[in-house]
Amino acid sequence: MNTLRMSTWRAAAALAGIGLILVAGCSDDSGLSKRYPVSGTVTYKGEPVPKGNVSFIPSTPGGREATGPLDNGRFTLTTATTNDGALPGSYKVVVIAQEMDTTELKEIAKGGQFHHDAKFAKASAAAKNLVPSKYRLADTSDQTAEVKPASNTFTFDLKD
Asked: E-assigned strands of the chain?
């Protein structure tokens, strides 16, 4: 092999190696299939639900749940990495939205105490549900979603 061909081959091999490193650096380590963006809105009685959490629970066994915080009626889902969306498939939709007085819990945490199960249970029991409790469980929620291999936007208008 002449010198020119050898240096061209080495340059091509180096560029290919750099390309592989860059491509590998762009993927995540979750081992999951491609996830697709999922966002949307949640309202109750025509008003945006101020805060809470939205979960997409797979309708079929072996699926992977996706969740996201609910802020002023809007949410974006995460499966493995922040805002990566959800795997394609059918889901039952769960919405947990409560207003909880955490004043006592914050005071305990300031003192360096983190074991406060009884206090947490008391605050949780006194929490005000911002949506009907039927939406808290996949078995009782009537909300469903079908995530497609594309960008997905959903609107959930919760009823009593």
From this structure: 38-44, 47-48, 51-58, 66-71, 74-76, 89-96, 98-99, 128-129, 144-147, 152-158
Counting every residue, how long is the chain?
160
* Domain extent at residue 17: 1-30
Q: Give the amino acid at 11.
A: A
pTM: 0.73
Neighbours of 40 (CB within 10 A): 19
Tell me what pLDDT residue 71 has: 97
Over the chain (160 residues), the average pLDDT of each successive run of 10 is 47 46 50 95 97 97 95 98 97 95 69 64 80 96 98 97
pLDDT of residue 48: 98
Q: Which CATH number does the domain housing residue 90 bear?
A: 2.60.40
Give the chain's domain count: 2
Judge contact between 86 and 147, C-beta under 8 A: yes
